[in-house]
Amino acid sequence: MPQDDWQGDLLRDLRNLTNDSGEPGPPGEQAGRPPTASAHAPSQANAPGPAAADTHLAPAPAPRPLPTPVTLELPLPDELVKGRPLSGDSAAKRTSRSLRRLVGSSASREVEEATRVAQALQQPLTTGRQIVVTSIRGGAGKTTVAALLGHTYAHYRQDPVLMLEADPALGTLPARLGVTKVRWTTSDVAQLIDPSMQLTDVVGYLIQLPDRGWLLPGSQGRVGNRLELDEYRTVMVALRRYFGVTVVDCDTLPSELSRTALSAAQARVLVTPATAEGITGTRSVLDWMASLSRSRMLERTVVVVSPSSPHMTLDATAAREHLQLDGVKVLMLPYDRHLATGGPIRTDLLGQVTREAVTELAAEVLTRAMSRQSNR
Ligand SMILES: Nc1ncnc2c1ncn2[C@@H]1O[C@H](COP(=O)(O)OP(=O)(O)OP(=O)(O)O)[C@@H](O)[C@H]1O
Ligand SMILES: [Mg+2]
User: Fold this and answer.
1) Other beta carbons within 10 Å of 288
2) Which parts of 229-273 are beta strand (E)?
């Protein structure tokens, strides 16, 4: 992996694409600002097949069966929800916050804190960092946290950010990101990816999101999809050189896939339901991680306690004490009405405390992913 200005090169690649192609023609169906895919690259939404691979393989590759998926429309959960999307904060809360801002003296402290967090989020990277989000239980809030992290990095960073779904069991990451059509999946890309591919070819298999975000879905929304361990490994190793940050919405523990993903990542997020059972289960995972010899995984681990109801009865201090072993960071995600509704996440509708918690979480995770032990 070259240590020089690899991110600058990638960005130049992407900018050139926009200039070369003349017209927008995005690789995915999402309307994001930057880059458009190479004319050779396939499209997530509508290209006929993986033509891009052919133009970049020299000498000609041995023929192998390549996936030829069809574009699949996903129903948006949004249509299932009555009324307008809810804001994370109630109207009363929004008003009282504006009043406090007007008369309070906390403004400069808030600016200082925001600057610190923004600097952490924008720290330069020498190699791509991969962050795995998982949990010991289903429904803990993994996909929500992965989508929030991906949004945050894509917003703050200048390098391309990938959100990858390693949850083949009808994952909801595309829906959370507002994506309505999927075509290529993580499993497909494992069979298509080739080291000689340019970023411009690779993004043809991805869905473009706002800011600098890209999505690789885990399935086409069908029961029975599988993502094999070696497919996951292939994709993660191959894609690391193209993306500054990759956030993986991973299968639930203790599957083999999630355990492998956890130990291979540069940083990991364990999402924990804010219940006694959730905290106890996550503590067991941390104990298991601590038992892995020489791994020092805990130093690069953040636990996110995620509430399933606005009336949390959990003692946050006791939960923190129970989970904070050997350098693990424990952060609380507030209950947010907008997140609770499901459907596409709109960051402008998140409650103020949620927004602050998410940026703090993203900064903490990235800093841990940058630590010396994780420079692998
Ligand atoms: N901070 C929050 N405030 C309110 N509701 C939340 C919050 N985080 C997640 N939720 C809700 O919790 C539910 C589960 O979230 P999510 O789908 O992210 O969990 P998951 O761990 O990915 O589930 P699965 O194991 O099925 O993949 C969703 O309905 C989501 O809307
Ligand atoms: Mg999920």
Assistant:
1) 15
2) 245-250, 267-273
Contacts 24+ apart (CB under 8 A), 116-121: 116/363, 117/359, 117/360, 117/363, 118/156, 118/359, 120/363, 120/364, 120/366, 120/367, 121/152, 121/153, 121/156, 121/157, 121/359, 121/362, 121/363, 121/366
CATH code for position 309? 3.40.50.300
What percent of the chain is modeled with pLDDT above 70?
72
**CA-CA distance, 357 to 148, in Å (whole number)?**
10
Question: Could you identify the atom of ligand 1 that is nearest to the CA of residue 135?
Answer: 21
For residue 23, being part of any structural domain is answered with no
Atom nearest to 146 CA in ligand 1: 18
- pLDDT tens across 106-148, in order? 677 878 888 999 999 999 999 999 999 999 989 999 999 999 9
185 lines ligand 1 (CB under 6 A): no
How many domains in the chain? 1
Tell me which residue range forms the domain holding 146: 128-374
74 located within any domain: no
Nearest atom (ligand 1) to Cα of 144: 18
- Give burial (CB, 10 Å; 0-12/13-18/19+) of 18: middle
Give residues whose Cβ lies within 5 Å of ion ligand 2: 142-143
Query: Is 193 domain-assigned?
Result: yes
CA distance 119 to 368: 14
Q: Is residue 95 part of a domain?
A: no
339 lines ligand 1 (CB under 6 A): yes
Token pair belonging to 183: 């075509």
pTM of the model: 0.83
Structural tokens at position 253: 């523990």
